[in-house]
Amino acid sequence: xxxxDTLVQGILLGGLYALFAAGLSLxxxxxxxxxxxxxxxxxxxxxxxxxxxxxxxxxxxVAVLIAAPVMFCVGWLLQTYVLNRxxxxxxxxxxxxxxxxxxxxxxxxxxTYSANSQKLTAGPIEAQSxxxxxxxxxxxxxxxxxxxxxxIFALNQLFYRTALGRAFRATSDDATTxxxxxxxxxNVFAMATGIAMVVATIAAMYLGTRANFDPSIxxxxxxxxxxxxxxxxxxSLWGTLAGGIVIGVAQAFGAAxxxxxxxxxxxxxxxxxxxLRPRGLFPRANx
Amino acid sequence: MTAxxxxxxxxxNYGDFQALFGVDLTLNAGETVAIIGANGAGKTTLMxxxxxxxxxxxxxxxxxxxxxxxxxxxxxxxxxxxxVPEGRKLFPSLTVEENLLIGAHARKVAGPWNLEAxxxxxxxxxERRLSPGxxxxxxxxxxxxxxxxxxxxxxxxxxxxxxxxxxPVIIRDIYAAVPKIKASGASMIVVEQDIGQALxxxxxxxxxxxxxxxxxGTPATLSREAIHDAYFxxxx
Lengths: 287, 236
Ligand SMILES: Nc1ncnc2c1ncn2[C@@H]1O[C@H](COP(=O)(O)OP(=O)(O)OP(=O)(O)O)[C@@H](O)[C@H]1O
Ligand SMILES: [Mg+2]
Prior knowledge:
The complex is a heterodimer of chains A (287) and B (236).
Chain A: H1 2-31, H2 38-56, H3 60-86, H4 92-113, E1 129-132, E2 135-138, H5 139-161, H6 163-173, H7 185-210, H8 218-232, H9 237-257, H10 262-276
Antiparallel strand pairs in A: 1-2
Helix pairs in contact in A: 1-5, 1-7, 1-8, 1-9, 2-3, 2-4, 2-7, 2-8, 3-7, 5-6, 5-7, 6-7, 8-9, 8-10, 9-10
Chain B: E1 5-14, E2 17-27, E3 32-37, H1 43-51, E4 56-63, E5 66-67, H2 73-79, E6 81-84, H3 96-102, H4 115-121, H5 123-127, H6 138-150, E7 156-160, H7 168-183, E8 187-191, H8 195-201, E9 204-209, E10 212-217, H9 224-232
Parallel strand pairs in B: 3-8, 3-9, 6-7, 7-8
Antiparallel strand pairs in B: 1-2, 1-4, 4-5, 9-10
Helix pairs in contact in B: 3-6
The complex binds adenosine-5'-triphosphate and magnesium ion (MG).
The site of magnesium ion has 5 residues of chain B, from helix 1.
């Protein structure tokens, strides 16, 4: 029964990783850009939620509603004034720029908030759990997974059912021809990064309520997110959810055997999946 | 009266390579103009320069008197110039219907063309509307590309080699649509290597060679020899 419990906790943890990864997956699917600052932007969003909570005395669930549109603008501006300038045939410039951005965000947060760890306090809900037979499931982890499913579902609807999603897919197919349709790829990319930052803000809220955070933890979140995207198959949003769950479950089982193995087991699962399926679990057909 | 589209002294380069040398061309409202010329004559470059995909180095491109040569490609579409690009260039991730709809994504103006009208023009597309655009035969893909450009109800429609790589029967089907498009009031520039086809549909013909216009006239007045010389260069 302990294994059953471990599995459930792993799946729930996977929800958090899927939230880390969903924005990365969206951006990669549209503009083939790996944003190395993605984890730090999540941490930045967590500090923003913290700031909103402190300034207005709000619960994290409410503060996220204010932080999300702000982060949308951050993403939009970042794409418009920085990333669009370096996107091109050569994949190296955007990698270098986002790496630089990662360092800038970390140091900026360190200067502003110090290295002390912080937490987003959600109150009594943090301790609440639901009993499913012999297994106790925390309400917050359950909400995290439910949010991940909802976010992935919403992104899929956006991608496949709306005019904006059509423009996303067409731009990803052919950024020159799409201009003949009156569409500016730079605007499409800015919208995509804005949306990715909204998802990052949701991820940040669950990250900050679940455990302590400090300015240095971004790169590790990026790594989990990146692994989830690759495991799921580049460009597949449901695949990204599956990828997050694979890492979550692997970490939970690793930790159950030996607490020191938690992180390592996630990385091992990543390598194993790649060995067996180099293109991930759900590769998109036309990549 | 000013022409609908007026091009004067247009030059364009790819890096150090000059592809257009002072091209002059006019398109009057309601007219169908054909551009013929051998491979590498600069026909596609001229189309790309009009749509802003390639920047004009010098010269004038004016739509109803308003200069458009400095506009970015999306703004040229918004001004009312749509193109069926060489090689069709459908979006593989989009279904047939989505490929059509995206033609009207940015420029939504009332006019004769909408999904229903496109499906009337090319009924087979309605049957295949949910297939990926690129799963269709070459001829059907060409129909999608034409429909996609029409969806913005353009004032000027540019068609770059819509017969390229298609079997003669299919070409006949595609070209059967041209008079219907013309009847809807569209003004067209049709790039075509098939001289016979071009002479059949055009009100006026321009022949290009090595980045220059070497001959213009109406199909009735152009002699076979004149076209031959303008197309291949005068043989001594
Ligand atoms: N992207 C490019 N970079 C450099 N040179 C180019 C490019 N595209 C075209 N050219 C050159 O410009 C000249 C004109 O080419 P263009 O494609 O306009 O000719 P075309 O008349 O459309 O030919 P075709 O009938 O083969 O389509 C050719 O010499 C071609 O090699
Ligand atoms: Mg050409």
